[in-house]
Amino acid sequence: MAYLVLARKYRPQRFAEVVGQPHVVRTLQNALRQGRLAHALLFCGIRGVGKTTVARIVAKALNCEGNDPAEPCNRCLSCEEITAGRSLDVIEIDAASNRGIDEVRELRENLKFAPARGRAKIYIIDEAHMLTREAANALLKSLEEPPPHVYFILATTEPHRLPVTILSRCQRYDFRRIPPAVLVEHLQDIARREGVQIEEDALLIMAREAEGSLRDALSLLDQALAYGVRTREELLEAFGLAERELVEKLARAIINRDLAEVLALSEEAYRQGVDLVYLSESLTEFFRHLLAFKVSRKGPAEELSPAEIATLRALSMEVEPEEALLLFQHLLRGTEALKRSAYPHLSFELHLARLCEIGKLASLREILRKLEELYQKTPEGPPAAETVTREPSKPETDTSWEEFLAQARKEKPRFAALLASLSPPEREGEHLVLKVPRGTLLEDRDLQEELSGYFFTRTGKILEIRVEESPGQNLKERLLERPEVKEALAIFGGKVAWVKPRTEE
Ligand SMILES: [Zn+2]
Predict the structure, then answer these.
(1) How far apart are CA 52 and CA 123, in angstroms?
(2) CA nearest 83: which of 67, 103, 98, 61?
(3) pLDDT of 105 strictly over 80
(4) How far away, in angstroms, is 70 Cα from ligand 1 center?
(5) By C-alpha distance, which of 282, 302, 299, 306 is closest to 182?
(6) Cα–Cα distance between 155 and 55 in angstroms, integer?
(7) Residue 129 — φ and ψ, nearest 5°?
(8) Going by DSSP bridges, is the β-strand pair 431-437/426-428 parallel, antiparallel, or unpaired?
(9) Residues with Cβ < 8 Å from 113, sequence gap 6 or more?
């Protein structure tokens, strides 16, 4: 017996055998049972999810000589003829290859003839969006008033390309992508019927590769069986698929901005003959999942194995959400560029190197920590330039302002940095008043309190901090003058794009 591809060998012949479309099956069976099936049906969905298969089962059910109106018997002559593809009452038109108006004209001519054997005549029009406008118009006339014995089933992957006039005359059924878990179960069942034991992890990879299409999943299983593949490792090797481990290592190296490691891994993948576009796609997928874990704790759990979930959850702790999003976006773009590149190897490396550079997002906390570190390393504290421009300090406190600053440089370098460019506080009655310009970090109440508290413990005096407008200079210019801003710019190599004053609560 000639080898039959699995998709054909195991094509469902009854509603009960249809995989992953319970909502469609339920609605169709109800309509059939009540004898209220619409005469024009539209089946939408991606390739390989069972549109044509279900259309044939509907045709069989309509003409079956058995007792159940909602399930074909598959034993009567009508069922057998339809299964074998030689029924005169089921006419399949592939609109992709028969786009001409002639076929539709012929179809209209034939409509008036009664069915050859069964009760109904069923026209299955595959890839219906490919019909020419003339053919679609001709079809429309038949759809408007179909004879009672005629049914139309239009199948399409792109319903939006069908004219609204046709859409509005059809009862629409949306076929869904089949979830990986359902695909795995089905693949396992078929492998068992073929007398083959295949690792579940291997089946999961096939299911994920198929992206919800049963036909694609079965065609991968076909190839796996042909190669004698039984384990995940064998599958990855046979198909040249990127190792999950490699993807994880790469992702980790990117998150750590470890360019040397990233390039070493890329080289290894290239040497092993891994398909770089596929690797890049897997990496993109990885960051998409990572992002999902960043957003919700559960993440896309049903698509993944427990080991993958554990890795993703752990890695998601190490990235900020903005960073994960940025990396994901760049990967998406980089993968597209890679597909078009004449030098994929170089293009891939460049793409990875860029990933290590972008998105070095530092939080404000991180910036302050780095500044503090920097000042602790410099014995003199902040550069002396500011102290020169300052007026000679007035002896209004027992501990002079200069001494206080010197102490702060050792103990609280962050405060020292913030205070370095300010004039010393002035006495006002019982208080010392420190005037700070608007738009600096010292506008922050918590920070003010912390500073006053620290000042009090060091000097025994109360320091009042007053935020003032200083005329003549705009906020951005004033900020750019400030040493901590200059330092931050020097350390992080950025520039100040805009200044946003904090709004009062
Ligand atoms: Zn039958």
Answers:
(1) 11
(2) 61
(3) no
(4) 11
(5) 302
(6) 8
(7) -70, -10
(8) antiparallel
(9) none
Joined tokens for residue 229: 């593949």
Is residue 61 within 8 Å of 32, Cβ to Cβ?
A: yes
Distance 117 CA to ligand 1 centre (A): 12
pTM, rounded to two decimals: 0.57
Cβ neighbors of 400 (< 8 A, separation 6 or more) are 393
Q: How far is the CA of 217 from the centre of ligand 1 (A)?
A: 29
pLDDT tens across 353-388, in order? 888 876 555 555 566 666 666 666 655 544 444 444
Give kind and range of the element (H or E) at residue 171. Answer: strand 171-174
Task: Order the strands of the 150-156 sheet from edge to edge.
Answer: 90-94, 121-126, 150-156, 40-44, 171-174
Q: Return all residues near 135 (Cβ < 8 A) that are at least 6 apart.
A: 95, 99, 100, 101, 103, 104
Set out the domains of the chain in order of their start, with CATH numbers: 6-174 (3.40.50.300), 180-239 (1.10.8.60), 244-357 (1.20.272.10), 365-492 (no CATH)
The Cα 67–Cα 63 span in angstroms is: 11
Output DSSP code: residue 300: S
Question: What is the C-alpha separation between 283 and 35, in angstroms, rounded?
Answer: 51
What are the tokens at 189? Answer: 């069942």
CB 153 within 8 A of CB 123: yes
154 CA to middle of ligand 1, Å? 23
Give per-residue pLDDT as tens, 33-78: 999 999 999 999 999 999 999 999 999 999 999 999 999 999 999 9
Pairwise CA distance, residues 440 & 451, whole Å: 14
Q: Which of 400, 429, 434 is nearest to 415 (CA)?
A: 434
* C-alpha 59 to ligand 1 mean position (Å): 10
Q: At what angle do helices 214-227 and 180-193 cross, to 10 degrees?
A: 40
